[in-house]
User: Which sequence fits this backbone?
């Protein structure tokens, strides 16, 4: 069944430029290398891969800042990589099991950036996206 022209004309399209896609694919390669190094306890490689993995995630978030949805998800990824890298470092340097507060170890501190990323997504889906939906509905009336 064909889609009515009016539906197609009002649908917003987000296209990723080829250079951005190449950077995102390279980002995935660095992320996998970081996590493989973590799994294999290859400390130098794991620590080295934090820099390009987190750096590219920041660049991607910056480049998508004009799109609320993309920015929210890319910032969540930045905080995910931050938490993941901290957790890896806590294991590499042996403070993952160190008690820092009652029932809290060094590894548990990775929850801070994980929860910040989750908070960004919750804000987007519970506040920002409903506002955008209402604004687009009013604009089409």
Assistant:
């Amino acid at each position: 069944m064909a889609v009515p022209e009016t539906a197609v004309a009002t649908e917003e399209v987000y296209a990723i430029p080829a250079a951005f896609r190449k950077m995102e694919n390279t980002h995935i390669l660095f992320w996998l290398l970081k996590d493989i190094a973590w799994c294999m306890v290859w400390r130098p490689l794991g620590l080295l891969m934090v820099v390009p993995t987190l750096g590219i995630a920041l660049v991607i978030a910056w480049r998508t800042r004009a799109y609320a949805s993309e920015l929210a998800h890319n910032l969540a990824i930045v905080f995910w990589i931050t938490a993941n890298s901290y957790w890896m470092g806590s294991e590499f340097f042996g403070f993952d099991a160190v008690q820092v507060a009652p029932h809290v170890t060094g590894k548990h501190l990775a929850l801070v950036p994980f929860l910040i990323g989750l908070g960004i997504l919750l804000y987007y889906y519970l506040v920002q996206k409903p506002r955008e939906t209402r604004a687009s509905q009013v604009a089409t009336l």
User: Anything to note?
Assistant: DSSP finds five helices and two strands in the chain. Strands lie at 99-101, 104-105. Residues 18-140 form one domain. The chain has a mean pLDDT of 90.
